[in-house]
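Final report, closing paragraph on structural work. Over the funding period we assembled a curated collection of sequence-structure pairs, and we close with a single example.
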Amino acid sequence: MTAQEYLVAQPLIQTERVDLRPLRKSDMGLIEMHTSDQRVAIMTTSIPHPLPPGTIEAFVTRAMAPERDEDVWAMDGTRLGGPEVMGLISLHRMDRNQSEVGYWVAPAFWNTGLASDAVRALVEANPLGNATMFASVFQDNPASARVLTNCGFDYIGDAESYSVARGVQVPTWTYLRKLF
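Its predicted structure, as stored:
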């Protein structure tokens, strides 16, 4: 199976406001612009700040690879006259029919309901046929916690995750959503 054939298997998921679509090489510029923003990087575990050269190209290449453990979708607003990349959302495969949801939204779209729309659509589509989805957010990001609770996730406890941009362990809240 070629990479292109595999990407067709990653579905397009539409909402009223945005399309969730697989990444493509042409997304690299907008992804780099948004993830270079410190406000975005410090709310994730994996985006470094400052962003080293080649980071986004390597990320997009991994996201498009046929043998990957994470499916990544761009929040694409072009169908409604918006930008091609307003944020990203992903499902990282775990064992026992579970995935971890991850997402970030560009600051221009914060507090607009975009993240809630994207998470809700991804959960409803359940493209990997998961029984359970997990997510965690930094405790200094209550807006992301509200996104998860608004989408039916239940709080299950506190933990810590390392933030590459911050260079430290950061307290997190962990959430779970049973799908069947």
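The CA atoms of residues 11 and 127 lie 7 Å apart. The domain at 3-130 is CATH 3.40.630.30 (Aminopeptidase). We thank the funder for supporting this effort.
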